[in-house]
Amino acid sequence: MTDTSRISIVRMGQDRNHYFFGYYNKSNWNLAGTRLLGNQVPWRDAYLTPGLTANVGYFDLEDDSRYKVIGSTRAWNWQMGCQLQWVGMSRQSQVVYNIRTEDAAARYPYFGSEIYDIETGGRRQLPIPIYVAAPNGEWALSVDYRRLYVTHETIGYSCDRYKPQLDNCPADDGIYRLELGSGEYKLLVSYADLASFHPRDSMRKAIHWVSHIEVNPSSSRVLFLHRWTERVKDETCFLHRLITMNPDGSDLRLLECSDHPLPQLAEDFDPTKVGTFDYEKSEWQISHPLWRNDREIIVWGPHKGRIHYHLYEGCNNGAVTAVGKRVLTENGHMTFSPANQRWLLSDTYPDSQTHERVLFLFDMETGKRHDLGSFYADPSLSKENRCDLHPRWRADGRAVCIDSVHEHDRNMYILDVSSIVGE
After folding, report:
1. I want to staple 162 with a disulfide (CB 3.0 to 4.6 A). Which of 61, 109, 203, 308 is the partner?
2. Exposure letters 164-181 (e unless 16+ CB within 10 A, then b)
3. pLDDT per residue as tens digits for the range 95-123
4. Which residues, 6+ apart, have CB-to-CB distance to 152 below 8 Å?
5. DSSP-assigned letters across all residues of 379-396
6. What is the pTM of this model?
7. What CATH number does the domain containing 297 carry?
8. Residue 81 DSSP one-character state
9. In this structure, is residue 390 part of a structural domain?
10. Overall number of domains in the chain
11. d(Cα 131, Cα 301) in Å, to the nearest integer?
12. Which residues span the domain enclosing 302?
């Protein structure tokens, strides 16, 4: 067990506001480690409606960690924020994030994205929202957040003026590619394409969607989760596939599928009896995939009947290895250190009795887990407004940032892990 007294922790927000960044899949630090992106709101756990506004900004770590507002948005959720992220891996003066617009004729009516340049103050809008920007800073990938709000409310954006009538697997919607320079966009792979790609009987009457889209470090390959269900209100009925493709939508490859019988589809099944985190702890769950490098993918999911942290080597049926088989025994939000792939950072969901979440590092060389701390999560928070730790690395691999409510407020914290990774 790690001596956590060696781990310093610093709270970011020092006022009456609440701060959070959201997902684990991208770092909110700039490469220099001088700015830390985050959203600012006046509530800890408001139910989200289209009118609620969040400030967009960053903590200036060279100016007494003051929070500096650069914009605002009404396109956000508690899990992913507004998809705020740095553009590219070089100069990093620009950020991109999602917004609501007044454009009823947009591809996704009333939704778009915005790029802001911190150095010049320049601002420009893009015609569709983004999910993830490629590391090369040239393009991003997009999905319909209205569809996500229907299929997986936790990661969607609420709708009012334009509520979509969703086809189960349309040929004119799916994953879009957006050119960040010109604003041009095109459909790469449709839901109809996905439903016909290694089709399963369970897909025929199901609604389809895509999440967890990630681009590898060289911007040469994309992974995503294809999900489908007949019962959107019960996440334990979600079915999952892990797929990769080229950035132009070609060369789709199926890495894993967890299709399985669903007794929950019985008429007398009561989804209200399902616990908040039962879905995350399902033995069929495929979740939180991320590139370790250009060829390896880490994911929590089943492979050959066993669920573990699994490392997929290559993008076409390469070796699949269980990571930390006896140590990493539950789902979490995992990323490898950008400075040293020896170190895997992750967390746990709240314990059902203590409501504590554990943050930890796992040493890929020794197989040792180093617990960094345990953080209380208020059980009164719902699935949609909960606060996962979602740990994120600083570029030098010597500090991590989390979101947490263990001091009641929703806030961001920096933990110095140099005493462990420097050993």
Report:
1. 109
2. eebeebeeebbbbbbebe
3. 999 999 999 999 999 999 999 999 999 99
4. 209, 211, 227, 232, 235, 238
5. TTS-TTT------EE-TT
6. 0.94
7. 2.120.10
8. B
9. no
10. 1
11. 22
12. 22-331
